[in-house]
Fold:
Amino acid sequence: MVSEPVNLCDVLVLDGRLRQSLATVRSLGSRGVRVAALETCADAPAFSSRWCRYKFVCPAEEGSQEYFGYLMQVLDATGARVLITSSDGTIELLRQHREELEQRVKLALAREPALGIAIDKEQTLDIAGRLGLQVPRGILVSEVSEVHAALCEVGLPAVVKPTRSWTSNEHQGTRLASRLVTTRDEARRTVEELTCLGGKTLFQQFLSGRCEAIAFFYAHGEIMARFAYWARRTDPPLGGTDVMVQSIAVPADTGDLAERLIREIGLEGYALVEFRRDSAGHPYLMEINSRLTAGISHAMYAGVDFPYLLYQWANGERIDVVKNYRTGQWMRYLSGDIATTAASVRQRGRPGVNPPVRAILDFMTSFFVPAQYDYLDWRDPLPAWTATIGWFRSLPQLLGSAFSRGNTLPVPAVPSWEHPATRAVQQQVLQEKKARMSRRLELALAACLYYSGIVKLARWWTQRQGQGLVVLCYHRAQGGYLRQHLLYLRRHYRVLHLEAALEALYQSQKGACQRRKQGTLLALTFDDGYYDNYTEAFALASALQVPITLFLVPGYIDSGSRFWWQEPQYLLQHAQVSEATIGGRIYHLGNADERKTLEQAVETRLRNASSINGREAFLAVMHEELMAPSPARAEEKAALPLNWAEVREMEASSWVSFDAHTMHHPTLSCLIDPAELQYEVSECREILEKQLGHPVRAFAYPIGKGEHIGESGLAAVRAARYNWALTTLHGINTPQTDPHLLHRFVVDADQHWLMIAAKSAGAWDIFMRLCHLPGTVVRNTFSMYVESCLGGR
Structure:
């Protein structure tokens, strides 16, 4: 994680994938509040907002202790004063660590015990009954054997609700949703699934009337704002996310009762009280939501800015009282509306679900209703595009489910810890299938770019613009396609050693026309210095007479040790224990999911290490905890570092040159000690110059993205007086490119030469930019598509 000065932002918003988190970012950011966002996925819509200043992607699972540890690091780095969250999992995590968190940040959460009462439906309905609110007839069920008695009391159809939306045990946590059941078998399966992690369920009578909700902001004993709406459609159809709603005046028969309930509980902050009417129009209390819901964007559109009120309240500021809002305003969540229409087709014939023809007709006629569309804001358009791309990823699965009647109740998931071996094998097979299909799809796209002439056009255009330099960044040399890469590149580019190519790039503009005739410059670089760079890349470079450049990490040369980024996978593959306690959490290594989570946690800890000694100490602890053997094995040799004899042999050939890549490959932006940072950058050059006998003028940043370099890393490289420094930011270099922030295209030796042709010409990145998708997201899109296709096999 980037180490930066404190007070970078005012508010940290969690759960950036949610609509309410995006609405929060927009609300606060448009008012001049500095906002950062934290999420577990890189394509969260909130990240795309123009008002999101800083974006943090947590590698750990939401609600886990590793997530909390990462959150604490982000708070330290940003100095955020207020923390706002929108999901049940993170709220539960914050409740567990509330005392520790409140020492450094203000939580925009209601106080205990009011928050605990609101989260627990059993306690909420008990208080509501005492206040005279009507509640659906219901009975608590904690195990399958009690289902028969519950159905005798409630009847069928019935709604089965978890008493708490988020539940967990020592193995995992998950969010649970209500289900409609129409048969006894369906009821038993539902209870079995909803109680597999413990907890209770609530059987309630089925009500299919109009769904209404009243949102309140309650603070200091006063109601500061009210907002009411009714939901024309929800996803799923019988209750869930509101997808087509209209603002209304606070109903006379529920407004005062809902306010009394909020006051009785003492639930400060934002609260949404939901009602469902029966066929006679009588309202019944369904639940209270104590977290920000997706309805806040509708409220903001109508004139009630709940996120800003929440910020004022949490920050101790004077709260703006909102007395009125616009009624009759429609808000539509289009992708959710498509999903609920598809669900109506899939669940045709179920109680309370519109017939397919009516559902489709309602969907189409809604386009003629003047409405504000969720995500869409002309002042901030990118989140709508991000959300649209995310919807297209799930389109194959959505279309498949819409026309498959099947069983409307999902088959209960087997807890992952019950059959770890079987689950691990299944996951491995699925991952291999996904990887193969992803590669085929990428290759098909590259072939289209090449054989359509786009790659040739991109090469011509680059050459036409004047002198340019393409730098390719390899790591390993094994893969089988490197020979084809070199043959293609030698034919279409002027391939030079890196330093020679950079000198040619930055020389005077005289003779520009002549250089255009000679072709675009290209340099081939290999980072880190693996042994297979000697056995494969050096052999091919010598045979084909193609110059290459290796960036070396002297601290690893002659060590015979694995590079630190190889350790997480090695540790988990060779662990001799069945469980391990890391950071206060117990990981069951027989569970494939927990093994992967632990591997990611170890990798993150190593990547974000604040010192080399700290990194090595943590690795020693991990080897001891997992009882994994430390010495490298013979079969690992191709992935181990070079030795000095091999370096000098390559240097003598004149086809391989060498440059610096730090002493021990740390993430420069994470190093705390300025002296250690300068040592890592400067000492590696001194050692290389001593061993090679000539100046070393170029440097490659470890990992190489902006967040890994940081201002401190860039300053250290400039202070060390390197002539040039290379990142892994994609692009073609020109004489105007900052010599200490040069671009490289990251490629692999196992990629087909068509991919190399598309990437080296810049055509691949141009295509991605036209789609507003970075290459990693395209790979994820392919992965999601492949997963949905394989899911039906």
Residues 172 and 197 are 8 Å apart (CA to CA). The first strand starts at residue 11 and ends at 14.
